[in-house]
Amino acid sequence: MITPGLTVSDFEYDLPPERIARYPVDRRDESRLLVVSRETGFLRHLIFREVGALFRAGDVLVVNESRVLPCRLLGKKPTGAPAEILLLRPSETDPDGKTWEALVRPGGKLKPGRIVEISESLTVEVLDSAPDSGRVVRLVTDLSVEDALEAHGHVPLPPYLERGDEPLDRERYQTVYARVPGSVAAPTAGLHFTEDALAELESLGVQRARITLDIGVGTFRPIDAERPEDHVMHPERFHVPEAAAETINLARTEGRRVWAVGTTVVRTLESVARADGWVRPGRGATDLFVHPPFSFRVVDCLLTNFHLPRSTLLMLVSAFGGHERIMEAYRTAVEEGYRFYSYGDAMGIV
After folding, report:
1. CA diameter of the chain
2. Residue 297: exposure state from Cβ atoms within 10 A (0-12, 13-18, ≥19)
3. 205 alpha carbon, distance to own chain's centre
4. Which of 51, 245, 326, 344 sits CB 3.0–4.6 Å from 318 for a disulfide?
5. Is the bond into 78 cis (omega within 30 degrees of 0)?
């Protein structure tokens, strides 16, 4: 149920174009960190390398280890006209992993039976239509899927960056702990962490729990409806290992705090939590849409980035920190010159 009178328009804010971070800062932990108190709304301005000041011994830091695939394929139709394939997810019934669900451009031209040449060693055949104007495609290559994408794929940067991927994005659009390939967008809250920052937290007695949620293209899609309850989330696959669930459940039993690094971690943990907050391990898919009001059962603190207006991500953050409080924090961030979106600065809600 949505708070009476709260509509998608209530998650709008003014952002000057120059506040969009089109490139990352030189060093990951040099980004800024706006800290918001869930209880008082008190704001504190830090540099991310100072994030250890927010933690206590025994806190659990939950990270999403999903790795971004270089899944944007640029090629040509037989006529020589440009074409683009964005691979979304592999078919669960294809043993060699070369059949995928994808988005294609130009959509009106790339119908079943069409071929797109990516390189001499890789072509893509359009096999069938798929939901939401998608296609089922097959990679035709003697290479493994991993080698083909590594050699010929591009990093699928968010459209609002308004630029093509560059060599630096191969590293910087991944978290330092990214391990499991499967996402078409980075879990950007984790981009600020360096190995040194993680080591410092460990030295402070902070434990780390590792999960995965493979981020789909739905993360880029705006909400067209005016009522949040009319929006449908695209399912995304997750995995909560037993070790992660045990670490989180023990912390909750002992009254220690659970930190989520990003909205993907929040959605995963809240999807697998029982009513009493006990986290169940396992694999699955979630279409959970978190918006105000929402009763959080697992997460106590959140590290996140600054998100697009009218987005499901901003709604989740508002549900966690309070709508008025978060929107005021966003206005402050704009006034104070914070950098926004995937390569931008961070927010901590404690």
Report:
1. 65
2. middle
3. 27
4. 326
5. no
Are 27 and 194 in contact, with CB atoms under 8 Å apart?
yes
- Cα–Cα distance between 285 and 282 in angstroms, integer? 10
Nearest residue to 69 via CA among 147, 163, 161 = 147
- Residue that has been written with the tokens 């995965």 in this structure: 212
Amino acid at 167: P
Question: Quick one: angle between helices 312-321 and 323-335, nearest 10?
Answer: 110
What pTM was estimated for this model as a whole?
Answer: 0.94
CA gap 338, 304 in Å, rounded: 13
Residue whose tokens read 């729990």: 209
The 10s digit of each residue's pLDDT in 291-340 is 999 999 999 999 999 999 999 999 999 999 999 999 999 999 999 999 99
Which residue do the tokens 């490139």 mark? Answer: 23
* Distance in angstroms (rounded) separating the CA atoms of residues 314 and 263: 9
Query: From CA 110, how far away is CA 120, in angstroms rounded?
Result: 20
Q: Both tokens of residue 129?
A: 């239509």
At a CB cut-off of 8 Å and minimum separation 6, what does 210 contact? 62, 63, 65, 177, 179, 241, 243, 244
What 3-state DSSP class applies to 167? coil
